[in-house]
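Exercise: predict the fold of this chain.
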Amino acid sequence: MAITRQSIGRGGIRSAGYDRASRLLEIEFEGGRIVQHTGVGDEIARRFLSSGSPASYYRDNIEEEFPQKRL
């Protein structure tokens, strides 16, 4: 399944996208690493995608809280 990502371009995060139906948050970091986090709720994803400091929000609320796999 392909997730459409939007450009972020801040804090080392190149782009990110969310699929509500599967609750997957996909993040592409500068350097090309892509990870998917499973079980992410709508509100967490919305706050991350609209954050003025997405890298901090990611570290504080997503990175260690939701299972991830590297693509």
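Check your answer against the key: The two ends are 12 Å apart (CA to CA).
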